[in-house]
């Protein structure tokens, strides 16, 4: 297999976890070797047919049990939740490649690197879980992440605003405090894993910001105004609640004006 979009289709529409991980790494290596074809007239299958594994059982976020990091079970459940986020992130990276054709080659190279890094994150967290006598799929997980993909399946600007520049950016806000909590607990391995993921996620959000601004310029939109409009349109509740990590978000391509808007409390 040498075509990027054939790799993407198999990774999205085949639920086998091991094959998905292997093909994701293979696709990135094929690109690195200069052997990957980055264009295709192949038809695009509906997002509704994307195939996930039978486990974990998916619940609405409000039905997920609360996790406390001061118990062994709580730590296991926390990392299972992180494993699910990273697993769905593999799908999200492949889907933005597969569903949105006609972009510059750099777009596909960027998102393939992200898919490969998300697969690495998942494998690291899964190994951490297995050391705690748990595997991915043993606990329930929430189904909210993929909903954002289906909601934006026909609009690349909306996908970029909502997934990397909203949902993924949330990790930049909350992960440093979680790292601090594990450091207090003396859990150096968990700290190292979360720091590795956080470092990569800054780059993922930055690529989302870059391509969002690229498309806005191409389509004649003012990027900050378009971001506000899309978040209000697609984010339940109007916009995410803080606090926001301004330093990391600015590194990841947010403007001060965007952050000021996010932090501003809405008046009735």
Can you give a write-up of this model?
By secondary structure, the chain is mainly alpha-helical. The chain is built from 10 helices and 2 strands. The protein has helices spanning 4-13, 17-32, 72-99, 105-131, 144-151, 156-184, 188-219, 223-234, 246-251, 256-263; strands spanning 58-59, 141-142. Helix 1 (4-13) packs across helix 3 (72-99) and helix 4 runs antiparallel to helix 7 (188-219). The chain is globular, with a radius of gyration of 18 Å.
Features:
single chain, mainly alpha, two-stranded parallel ribbon, 268 residues, 2 strands
Task: Give a quick precis of the structure.
This protein is mainly alpha-helical and 268 residues long. The chain is built from 10 helices and 2 strands; from the N terminus they run H-H-E-H-H-E-H-H-H-H-H-H.
Q: Point out poorly predicted stretches.
A: none
Tell me how many strands there are.
Answer: 2
Oligomeric state as shown: single chain
Number of helices: 10
The gyration radius over C-alpha positions equals: 18 Å
Question: How do the helices and strands line up, and which of them pair or pack?
Answer:
Blueprint: H1 4-13, H2 17-32, E1 58-59, H3 72-99, H4 105-131, E2 141-142, H5 144-151, H6 156-184, H7 188-219, H8 223-234, H9 246-251, H10 256-263
Parallel strand pairs: 1-2
Helix pairs in contact: 1-2, 1-3, 2-4, 3-4, 4-7, 5-6, 6-7, 6-8
């Amino acid at each position: 297999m040498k075509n990027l979009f054939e790799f993407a289709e198999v990774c999205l529409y085949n639920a086998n976890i091991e094959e998905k991980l292997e093909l994701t790494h293979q696709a990135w290596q094929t690109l690195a070797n200069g052997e990957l074809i980055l264009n295709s007239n192949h038809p695009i299958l509906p997002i509704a047919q994307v195939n996930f594994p039978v486990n974990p059982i998916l619940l609405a976020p409000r039905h997920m049990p609360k996790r406390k990091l001061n118990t062994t079970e709580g730590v296991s459940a926390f990392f299972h939740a992180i494993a699910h986020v990273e697993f769905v992130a593999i799908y999200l990276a492949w889907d933005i490649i597969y569903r949105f054709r006609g972009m510059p080659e750099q777009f596909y190279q960027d998102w393939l690197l992200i898919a490969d890094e998300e697969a690495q994150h998942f494998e690291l967290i899964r190994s951490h879980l297995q050391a705690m006598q748990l595997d991915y799929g043993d606990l329930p997980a929430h189904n909210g992440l993929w909903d954002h993909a289906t909601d934006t399946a026909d609009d690349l600007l909306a996908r970029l605003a909502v997934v990397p520049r909203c949902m993924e950016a949330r990790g930049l806000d909350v992960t440093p405090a979680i790292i601090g909590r594990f450091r207090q607990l003396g859990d150096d391995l968990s700290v190292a894993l979360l720091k590795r993921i956080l470092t990569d996620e800054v780059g993922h959000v930055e690529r989302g910001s870059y391509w969002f601004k690229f498309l806005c310029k191409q389509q004649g939109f003012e990027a900050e105004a378009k971001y506000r409009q899309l978040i209000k349109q697609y984010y339940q509740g109007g916009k995410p609640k803080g606090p926001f990590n301004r330093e990391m978000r600015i590194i990841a391509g947010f403007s001060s004006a965007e952050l000021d808007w996010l932090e501003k409390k809405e008046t009735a």
